[in-house]
Amino acid sequence: MRPSGRNLDEMRPISIETGVTKHAEGSCLIRCGDTHVLCTATIEERVPPFMRNSGQGWVTAEYGMLPRSTSSRMRREATQGKQGGRTVEIQRLIGRSLRAGVDRVALGERQITVDCDVIQADGGTRCASITGGWVALRLAVNKLLKSGALISDPLISNVAAVSCGIYAGQPVLDLDYPEDSEAGVDGNFIMLANGQMIETQMSAEGATYSRPQMNELLDLAEKGVAELVASQNAAVA
Question: Is residue 1 in a domain?
Answer without folding.
Answer: no
